[in-house]
From TrEMBL:
NCBIfam families: sensory_box (TIGR00229). Residues 1-43 form the PAS domain. It comes from the Bacteria. Signal peptide: none annotated. PROSITE patterns: PAS (PS50112). SUPFAM superfamilies: PYP-like sensor domain (PAS domain) (SSF55785). This is PAS domain S-box protein.
Length: 73
């Protein structure tokens, strides 16, 4: 599974139920311009205040419903 995640061309960004980042693949690193070590173990709320804004996770966590958004970075 790790190999598939690492070689996937699309961004894979995995969080736990509290929004703590567990894994980001190399495509995600390139997309956000950050190393995984700068992202993993931080919460989406922390990241949303910086370069990964806007983040849907805090909104989904609060509302507990499906939300769609177009994000331009």
């Amino acid at each position: 599974m790790e190999t598939i995640i690492d070689f996937c061309f699309g961004e894979i960004f995995v969080t736990d139920g509290n929004g703590t980042v567990l894994r980001v693949n190399p495509a995600g690193e390139a997309f956000y311009g950050m190393k995984a070590s700068e992202i993993v173990a931080k919460t989406t709320e922390e990241l949303a205040k910086g370069s990964l804004s806007p983040s849907l996770f805090p909104i989904v966590k609060e509302r507990k419903e499906r939300i769609s958004m177009i994000q331009q970075t």
